[in-house]
Amino acid sequence: MNPFLLRCLWLTILISGSLSVASWAQQPTASVYQVKVVTKSAHRIRGILSEVTDSYLFLGNEKRSREGRIPLIDIRKVVIRRRSKKNAIISGAIIGGLATGFLATQSLQKNQASSPVTYGLTLTFAAASGAAAGLVVGSALGNLTSRVIRPADRNNPELSLFRQLEPFSWRYQQDLINRLPQKEN
């Protein structure tokens, strides 16, 4: 097998292994989603998706106020965006650092460095600059990821919105996490 293809295979395995959720070995946490709700009367309401019931969408901790409680029947569409870009930033930095480090290693094999110290410094600075570039790209891509949810069923729009929005609500995610078996330290 070609040594270059073998290195590419190992790099792919390393990147996919480092990005898998199971390898992070962290306690699961609920994702927080920022939403923009557009009503049928063209009002736009922003907030954090707290809970969805069969008839209302609740934003933030404002369950008792009228601003935080929106009837599902009045919603035209909901734009959902993850509040934290941490996963995109970390993934971008890892991929950028590994890819640039790999390319620097390939380049340094063709053009030998004058000393081992120069080799190490070149490789380190290349990987660090690749990680920084990947961090910026991951942050930019994290801003672009949003999802638009509209009622799919015209006959029963409340049920349709409820089923689509419920997995994104903070309450639903907390209920799922609380059902998981707890780790003992």
Automatic annotation (TrEMBL):
Transmembrane segments: 87-105, 117-141
Protein's name according to its UniProt entry: Glycine zipper domain-containing protein
Residues of the signal peptide: 1-25
Entry keywords, A to Z: Membrane, Signal, Transmembrane, Transmembrane helix
Protein's UniProt keywords contain Membrane: yes
Entry superkingdom: Bacteria
